[in-house]
Design goal:
single chain; alpha+beta; five-stranded mixed β-barrel; 16 strands; 26% helix; disordered N terminus; HipA-like kinase domain-containing protein; HipA_2
Length: 307
């Protein structure tokens, strides 16, 4: 077995010069409005794969292929990982500061606990052969620190101006939207970005949570809901949603597990050097907004619910 040095893909000798093109269509952010095709090319510069296999004791997903870079502030890149999935990978230290990457992890933890529509995510280990690797389109090098990876959607459209929820009456979104609103309010989401998966009845997904926890101007402006900045702006609804779905989201807020700080400590890589005090602040901020989030969803149920 051999490995392409620049792309880290296992090949046979007979196929080592063949071309592999992976087309991934995805909307990026409000700066990029058209579909992107990512072309990953192989070459004949090969090394022994066995020299670079992950440790048998390693449970982390590892980086294998680096693709194109998104034209956004943090310049994440599309990558294939050792689990054969594609992820948008964000560095800890980026142009939006390290807090934005911590936000991604903590929002994902809270979102999963609620059952909100967020993408599967992984901490992606950077193997030694990628240390100091130049990500050319991003104009930065990988320093070996683990990455945050959000699983890519291959047939999804970014809403360029998410002021109104769309495709509300498509199957599944009745249930997903109230849970998404709950997450948005609990974590005081700023720069709200959503995608609709055209291959799955326009299912709604929340992506890119780097500016949540009130971080659009400065990192972690954790103000109370009694302040203007602490009150979360939510897109409008033009279609009514059955009361049972609002009630389900309210119940999910009330039932939020009390061990989320423990989960954050376990899931955030020690290599990041993040203080437990900082992650606890974010989790406690979400807990402290539970009653506020419930009251907001009750308002939505009254105004936009139906039996």
């Amino acid at each position: 077995m051999i490995l392409c040095r620049s792309l880290k893909i296992p090949l046979t000798f007979e196929r080592s010069f063949h071309l592999m093109v992976v087309a991934v269509e995805i909307r990026l952010s409000f700066q990029v409005r058209r579909r992107l095709k990512v072309n990953l090319l192989l070459n004949d510069n090969v090394i022994n794969l066995d020299d670079h296999r992950p440790s048998p004791n390693s449970s982390r997903t590892t980086l294998q292929i680096i693709g194109q870079v998104a034209n956004t502030g943090t310049k994440p890149f599309l990558a294939q990982a050792s689990d054969n999935n594609f992820y948008w990978c964000k560095r800890l230290h980026n142009d939006h500061l390290w807090q934005s990457t911590v936000n991604e992890v903590v929002v994902s933890i809270v979102g999963q606990a609620l059952g909100a529509p967020i993408r599967n995510w992984k901490i992606i280990e950077v193997p030694p052969e990628f240390h100091n690797h130049l990500v050319k389109d991003g104009n930065y090098r990988l320093d070996g620190t683990p990455l945050f990876g959000s699983q890519a959607l291959h047939n999804a459209d970014l809403d360029p101006d998410p002021q109104v929820f769309k495709f509300v009456d498509d199957d599944g979104n009745y249930n997903r939207i109230p849970l998404l609103i709950a997450l948005l309010i609990l974590c005081n989401g700023k720069d709200f970005q959503i995608m609709y998966d055209s291959s799955a009845e326009n299912s709604i997904w929340s992506i890119d949570h780097g500016m949540w926890f009130g971080s659009d101007e400065f990192p972690w402006v954790l103000q109370s809901e009694n302040t203007l900045y602490g009150r979360t702006s939510v897109p409008s609804l033009t279609v009514r949603i059955e009361n049972v779905h609002w009630e389900k989201a309210i119940s999910a807020i009330r039932s939020l597990p009390k061990d989320l700080s423990v989960k954050a400590k376990a899931l955030i890589p020690t290599e990041w050097g993040i203080s437990e005090v900082d992650t606890n602040r974010l989790i406690e901020f979400a807990y402290n907004r539970q009653e506020y989030a419930i009251s907001r969803l009750e308002e939505f149920r009254i105004r936009h619910g139906r039996r």
